Amino acid sequence: MCSSDLLVATSAAIKAAYADAKVLNGGIYRPFAENGKSYLRALFAEPGVAAAVDVVSLHSYASDEHGDSFADALATAGEIIGGKPIFVTETSVPDDGDRGWMTPTWHARMVATVAARGAAANARAVLWHTLADPPPGAMDRNSFSRQDRKSTRLNSSHQIISYAVFCLKKK
Length: 171
What we know:
This protein is an alpha/beta fold. Helix content is 42%, strand content 11%. It contains 6 helices and 4 strands. The chain has helices spanning 3-17, 34-45, 49-52, 68-81, 104-120, 159-167; strands spanning 28-29, 56-59, 86-91, 123-128. It is elongated.
């Protein structure tokens, strides 16, 4: 059984047990990259998949200076899936690297940018990756709560802001 057959069969079983349930696909990783776009196109071309999925789940990240890759991912997914709702079930921005623009100010701006670009693309939910404080050393990238390398305290200055932004429900 291939993954699309499993998705269709699982959706049917869920709907048989809970008729009002909304079924999401497994999160599509990097839908802004060609391999992610190709996979999403191929998945939704498989017989029964479009009918089996009620909400499309994406894992998209904003690692460029202005969040263009995140916006591109949502636009591409919208073209492929038609009018289905989109949930970004995992997103984040890198918190270290050799790019000079990766600063705390950039992180704060990107929280708002990702929320705004998600709303502009009609994403029904945008969930940030790792808002909880991880154990020391557990997260090295893509987390606002990464341990400060110069001390033992966590760098969590944006957690409350990002939590508030991403918990807002779109009506």
